[in-house]
């Protein structure tokens, strides 16, 4: 259900007026050419439509590049979660507790339904809670720390240090697995995450295409067709 709901919410376009004061700010990252070479040495830097030299919202190329890097990392993470969620939910695996209380079991929604159909079957209150929570995460990612277009690290989710009475962990590394890693190890893992995210974006769209247009992805011909509208959450 989250896989169907969260993907359309991944894109966040910053408001241009709010960023006018930081035009030209340095963005903390490796150069685009060096990063492209690390991600795929066989192809290297490939930018046929010139995004690498673009200037979005008149904020300068450095800020534009920070936006594009952050956007790809975020979309890749959402796609990885969506891909795994789609596989899990397609096999009837779901939480054991009641979905909306009153003895209404989640199996009522999961049994025989594909992931998009499970989303359609959710009550409005459940959809609203999911979208509101994702909206909060998006809001905090824009205003909770150093912005990725203002010198912050693309893909790094800000901590919740300034929110009183909360119990939310650091979403960037909730288990603290990166504390003992060297800079080179962190860079290697980030490159792996970007590549995995790119593959996951292709994978989840393959699932959606196979559902809506039977036969469009021959290897996924076993997927149940979906009669609804995948873009309905918009």
Explain what the structure shows.
The chain is mainly alpha-helical and 234 residues long. The protein is built from eight helices and no strands. The chain has helices at 2-6, 16-19, 32-39, 61-90, 107-110, 115-121, 124-143, 183-212. The relative contact order is 0.16. The model is unreliable at 1-28 (pLDDT under 50).
Features:
mainly alpha, globular, Chlorophyll a-b binding protein, 234 residues
Describe the structure concisely for a colleague:
Helix content is 46%, strand content 0%. By secondary structure, it is mainly alpha-helical.
Write the layout of secondary structure elements.
Elements lengths: L1 H5 L9 H4 L12 H8 L21 H30 L16 H4 L4 H7 L2 H20 L39 H30 L22
Query: CATH top level?
Result: Mainly Alpha
Order of helices and strands: HHHHHHHH
Could you tell me the number of beta strands? 0
Main pleated sheet: none
Secondary structure category: mainly alpha
Distance between the termini: 15 Å
Please tell me the overall pLDDT.
81
What is the approximate shape?
A: globular
Please name the CATH architecture.
Orthogonal Bundle
Oligomer: single chain
Number of structural domains:
1
Tally of individual helices: 8
Computed Rg:
20 Å
CATH fold call: Chlorophyll a-b binding protein
């Amino acid at each position: 259900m989250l896989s169907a709901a969260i993907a359309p919410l991944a894109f966040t376009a910053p408001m241009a007026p709010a960023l006018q004061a930081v035009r030209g700010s340095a963005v903390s990252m490796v150069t685009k050419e060096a990063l492209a070479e690390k991600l795929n040495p066989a192809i290297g830097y490939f930018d046929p439509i010139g995004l690498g030299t673009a200037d979005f919202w008149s904020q300068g190329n450095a800020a534009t590049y920070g936006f594009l890097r952050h956007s790809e990392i975020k979309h890749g993470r959402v796609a990885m979660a969506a891909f795994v969620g789609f596989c899990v939910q397609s096999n009837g695996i779901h939480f054991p507790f009641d979905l909306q209380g009153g003895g209404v079991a989640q199996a009522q929604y999961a049994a025989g339904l594909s992931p998009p159909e499970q989303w359609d079957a959710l009550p409005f209150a459940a959809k609203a809670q999911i979208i509101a929570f994702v909206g909060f995460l998006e809001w905090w990612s824009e205003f909770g720390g150093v912005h990725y277009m203002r010198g912050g690290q693309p893909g790094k989710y800000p901590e919740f240090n300034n929110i009183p009475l909360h119990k939310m962990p650091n979403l960037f590394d909730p288990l603290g697995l990166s504390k003992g890693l060297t800079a080179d190890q962190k860079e290697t893992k980030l490159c792996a995450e970007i590549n995995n995210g790119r593959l996951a974006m292709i994978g989840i769209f393959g699932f959606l295409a196979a559902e809506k247009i039977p036969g469009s992805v021959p290897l996924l011909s076993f997927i149940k067709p979906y009669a609804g509208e995948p873009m309905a959450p918009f």
